[in-house]
Amino acid sequence: MMNKKMEHLTEEVNQLLSETIPNSKLNTNLEESMRYSLEAGGKRIRPVLLLLTLEMLTDQYKKGFSSALALEMIHTYSLIHDDLPPMDNDDYRRGKLTNHKVFGEWKAILAGDALLTKAFDMIVNDDSLNDVAKVKLIKRLSFASGHLGMVGGQTLDMQSEGAETNIDLDTLEKIHNAKTGALLKFAVMAAVDIAEPENEVSNALESYSEHLGLMFQIKDDLLDIYGDEAKLGKAVGSDIENDKSTYVSLLGQQGAEDKLKHHTDKAYKCLNQLPKQYNTDNLVYIIELFNNRES
């Protein structure tokens, strides 16, 4: 359950996303396919986290909108590709038919490709940012979404599937620091790139973002065991069915719960290290949201 501030920011993000991809002169329905997944719902956690962090650091949080929209485009493209038959082969996402089930596989691939490239276009064309900030953001987003970030993590995850593959906890954390954590880390650190706070603030927020990423994934693994399919918008138990290594499979349910608490406590500690001038209430709320979410 979001608080009022998050709800307001989510509405702003949704409105801007709906205006971002008009039809082109090429007379294809590629844009329709892009919008289908981009506007399919979701909690917009990543863009909202970026905006909340920036609002804590500066009163000019609207400077983060282009990065927030770019981040959601990257996330959405990754979901389109993840759902394809060679990957997760999912028919539904957030309770709706997946992109390739509506538009076909080749167009879903191209819609994902187009969202990926559109993301960088959003940042480049933001007149509220200076060139130094744009370069920092593009560099950070390229790393977070590329072969050393999200895509690399997904690759290692795919290679680690199957009953014949046994990975240890260190490898699992390496997967999720990249696959899930990289974009969450970008959300927080993009705000740092824009606001340019002192190093002690930047370091504390970077650690906070890393613990958030692991919290998010551990909770995902737990929800696959006891989550409500109606709230999740997808079937539970798929990790077991696909012989995926998870925090639950490696540590047991109680061990995964303990690991979640460990990273939760660490995330709180990171925020407590920030100077008193910063109001961390909304970032504390994000920790609680990640810890207690049902979808």
UniProtKB/TrEMBL annotation:
<dbReference type="GO" id="GO:0016114">
    <property type="term" value="P:terpenoid biosynthetic process"/>
</dbReference>
<dbReference type="Pfam" id="PF00348">
    <property type="entry name" value="polyprenyl_synt"/>
</dbReference>
<comment type="similarity">
    <text>Belongs to the FPP/GGPP synthase family.</text>
</comment>
<dbReference type="InterPro" id="IPR008949">
    <property type="entry name" value="Isoprenoid_synthase_dom_sf"/>
</dbReference>
<protein>
    <recommendedName>
        <fullName>Farnesyl diphosphate synthase</fullName>
        <ecNumber>2.5.1.10</ecNumber>
    </recommendedName>
</protein>
<dbReference type="InterPro" id="IPR053378">
    <property type="entry name" value="Prenyl_diphosphate_synthase"/>
</dbReference>
<dbReference type="InterPro" id="IPR033749">
    <property type="entry name" value="Polyprenyl_synt_CS"/>
</dbReference>
<keyword id="KW-0479">Metal-binding</keyword>
<dbReference type="GO" id="GO:0005737">
    <property type="term" value="C:cytoplasm"/>
</dbReference>
<keyword id="KW-0808">Transferase</keyword>
<dbReference type="GO" id="GO:0004337">
    <property type="term" value="F:(2E,6E)-farnesyl diphosphate synthase activity"/>
</dbReference>
<keyword id="KW-0460">Magnesium</keyword>
<dbReference type="GO" id="GO:0046872">
    <property type="term" value="F:metal ion binding"/>
</dbReference>
<keyword id="KW-0414">Isoprene biosynthesis</keyword>
<dbReference type="InterPro" id="IPR000092">
    <property type="entry name" value="Polyprenyl_synt"/>
</dbReference>
